[in-house]
Design brief:
This protein is of the alpha/beta class. The chain has 9 helices and 15 strands. The chain is about 25% helix and about 25% strand. Helix 4 runs parallel beside helix 5 and helix 6 runs parallel beside helix 7. The longest helix is centred in the middle third of the chain and has 12 residues.
Length: about 280
Amino acid sequence: MKRLFLIFIILFLFTGCSNDNNFLAVHIIDVGQGDCILITTPKDNNILIDSGDENTYKIVKSYLKLHKIKNLDIIIASHLDKDHIGSLDDIIDNFNVKNVYAPNQKDDSPHYYNLIKSCKNSNIDINYLKKGDKIKLNDDININILGPSYIQDNNNLNSIVLNLNYMNMDFLFTGDCEASNETELINSFELEDVDFLKVAHHGSSTSSTDNFIKEVRPDIGVISCGYKNQYGHPHKSTLDTLNKYGVNTFRTDLNGDLVFYSDGKKIFTNKKYKQ
């Protein structure tokens, strides 16, 4: 872990930034009990990972318009659960989308068929991602796909796990991957240098195992979950594990939208979030 940068994260965590466009920005959009992540880069590339469920399109649309997002270079459907892809069809119908990525899986659900239909209507081919694939966004940003290695019956186990590298900073996005996925990740990759972790499966105890968090040791962890949701996410055991390894953890159910910035050497935000 790049502990050298931890002091910079702490020092800059509650300071403002003068021009957001100078930084890579990771927006964790509060869509309740679901995931929706917007990543914007200094070179005006826009990446959307997931979209919440079918009822959150207006939230995502308003957020994108607030930040003057008209074009999406990349959409990644981490996996085929409704709370991750439910609004992607509306986004594809109403925004200029260049590329759509998903795991190589089919699903007998209305939200999956709506996604396929919208891609077809917009003449977009879905690109399938698996372990070992790479997406080169520009000279400063590389995206490495760490999973899935194969398709299983459980949607969560098919989650696209991606490591976005921006200069000296590593961001790990995990979808709803489970403990078995995490074991494969730490057995297959050197993950000690992760600086930012999107905590898997809304903070469920089925993920974020002690071995995984001990290995990854992120400086910052973010959890996307609904306020007083029916699943009890995030689970206490997950929060205890994150706390045990000194992870600065931030949650949408406590803060709403979360935004973090990076200049490639440190990660910071311009708001004082609850932890």
